[in-house]
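task queued by scheduler; priority normal; single chain, no ligands, no partner chains; default sampling; output format set to structure tokens
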Amino acid sequence: MGQDVNSPQEDNFENFVSEIEAISNQLCLVVKGDFNFTIETKNTQERSLQKLVMLLNFVIDTARRALLEVNEQNLKLTELDRLKSEFMANISHELRTPLTLILGPLENLLEHDSFETTQLTNLKRIHRNAMRLYMLVNDLLDLSKIEAGKFTVNEELIDINELISEIVEDSYGLARERKIELTFVPCDQLELVLLDRKMMEKITLNLLSNALKFTPAEGSVIVEINKIENVLYLSVKDSGIGIPSEEISRLFERFHQLDSSSTRSHEGTGIGLSLINQFVTLMKGKIAVQSEVGKGSIFTVELPIQHLENQIQGDCQKEKVGGSDYIIKASLSKLALESPKSPQDLSTKESLQRENRDLPSIVIADDNPDMRSYITSLLKEFYQVYSAQNGEEALKAIYDHDPQVILSDIMMPVMDGLELTQRVKSDPTIQHIPIILITAKAGKEAIVSGLTMGADDYLSKPFSPKELQARVESSIRLYQNYKEILDLNDQLKNEIEERKILETKNQVLNAELIVAARRAGMADISTSVLHNVGNVLNTINTSTMLVGDKIKNSKISNLIELANLVKEHEIDFPSFVSNTPQGQRLAGYIIKLSDIWSNDKVSIIDEMKSVENGVQHVKEIIGKQNLLSGMIGITETLDIHGVIEDAILLNKDQYIKSEINIVRDFENIGNVKIDRIKLLQIIVNLLKNGIESINEQNPDYKKIVLKTQQKDQHHFMIQVSDNGIGVLKENIPKIFSFGFTTKKNGHGFGLHSSAISATEMGAQFQVESGGAGKGATFSLIIPYETSDKKDKKND
């Protein structure tokens, strides 16, 4: 048999596969992160292979450039991070110098008892917060050292039982204040061990501080040391609020906080646990946590035990590393600031002791006791101050004390300042109270958020006492201006209501006067009018006689003589006045004559004014008479229920005094063309009778029911029912008769005049009663088009 010979096509395919395999081998370098190569191919005939190679080289080159850019950015970020760490380290060192110059002299001052109570309180407040600042600076310095890789472990032989015992003993006072049972369980098996004292102090203080911070009153904290084989175990167990399981994995992340909201219950930076985790790692140990929400947490630190055989026991008594005492003091000062029962807080009792002072009141809301105490000390001389540690307590104080100004921090537990602002500004009863928000947050976002919620002013920390007082004074003026406007508005409303009542009463009285005039006859009214006009005319006649006498006895003749004398000496008048006795007396005579005329002028003007007033009075009498006669039978289109409400308003004082309930049972009647005065008079009469009837009966539950109802297509009904003394059956036929009454002081005119008005409107007036003590119901059935002849619209 002969050998198989490949065809040209098969050879080309094998070459193609070989080239692809070579390219694939080169691409493996990319997987290893090497982009510094170029793919080449020897096959120049396959165009598709050429295109693939070009495309792959383009992709590799692009990736190479991108990798270079990323590396450059990483170098820049690394350098920036290094500069940031150096800056933090430098600024922390720089801050420690002024802190030393603050804390040193302060402690010297506090050793003396020569200060007044207020001065001593302020010095202690400064010392506590300076210690707190010292702790924060130390944390920043430690953090920057760790980031820069410059933090070294300084091991020394220490008695770990004694070290932890001292820290726990220093914390007993704070635990008692918080009503927490603090226990230390040492390990007798432990000898001297090689550890970094400062790191152990910071680890223990941080874990103990957190346990005391998050454990409520009546809870417990146990610090325990154990030794198992060659491992030291430090555990801190508390019965506090616990940690959610989803948060445990992030617990030791830098700057992470369990609650970073504006309503968080405890202050913090999120550095502490991250630092101690790194301290433990530097000492070749590890830290673990077990926790259950609502039951508490256990933090356990495991450290390898190291011994130094040739070092004597006395070495453990050497001086503590510089700054250890300050670290303990600062940590406990920081925790004391967060105590809800801090002695610096303004208690409710202290507030109530000053309630009798006639001062504007202010509510302060801040979760920091020192800040509350400081603001109170600045304002208590001029204002009645009530303090609260969160927005919820502040809201209660606002409702209890009705302050003129509210000062609130933004970040507070339970209810923050923004929610407090929103709650206040959405309640019409307290939304007028100015709110000043206080915050340490930088940036305009916080200011915009507060102002959007309705805050009236903003104050950024740190602030000067003068700025605080100026802003409070401005808000007090704003409140006082609002109250003045509100008082004027209430006064105006009262005057309008009183005016409306008087106008309605006047209409009722006019209607009653019309009825009386009709019964008595217009002759009596005419006689009264003529009598009044006659009195006015007598007054006018007297005044004109007096004016005539004044003119008759005036000095006109003297004035004429004076004019003739002047004319006579017209040519030599200057010489006449200067050289002759008569001319020399002329000036005095003119002055005297002028005075007489002035007095006569005043008298004549007064009398003419009296004449004018008399004429005006006559016009008014005639006008009122025309108005009185013109009010008869005026109809207008109106809302029936509005007339009923006016009638109720007119009897308001009587039914409120008698504790009578007014019940409305209204049906939609629509607008009706009717004589408003007559209808008002009838309903007022019925309400008045109902009130008197109920007062006489005096039932347990007093009520008058006013009901409107459409009777049929052409009529509607108004009913007034009461649960008073009722009407005897034999009295019902004569209830509307003139002069009939069952009241001791009654005149029998009210229901009779109401019946006349009802008849004139074409209405039916009825009464129903179950008898004595069963109340009464008066029904007025009125046509939609009343029979009154005069229409107000055509008047």
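post-processing summary
- The CA atoms of residues 188 and 728 lie 104 Å apart.
- The radius of gyration is 51 Å.
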